[in-house]
Amino acid sequence: MKTYQIRDLATKDLKTTLKDNYEALENFRFQHASGQLENFKSIANTKKVIARILTVLKEREKEENKKA
Question: Which of 6, 9, 42, 49 would bridge 13 by S-S if both were Cys, CB 3.0 to 4.6 A apart?
Fold first, then answer.
C-alpha cells in the first residue's frame, strides 16, 4: 500500500487497516518461527505499511490539534 493510497482513506478505515496489518505481521512471525514462511520480504513490507499508516494518523492528529 502506497502513501497516496493511505492518505485517501478515512481515519476509521486507517485504524481498521492498521489492526489488520498488525495481525498479518503476527501471523508472518509465527510462520517464520515454524519455518513455513516462503516470502521473507512480506515481514518487512508489512512493517513499512504499518509505519506509513502511523505517520499519516499522527499527521492528522497534529492537524486537528492545530485547529482546536
Answer: 9
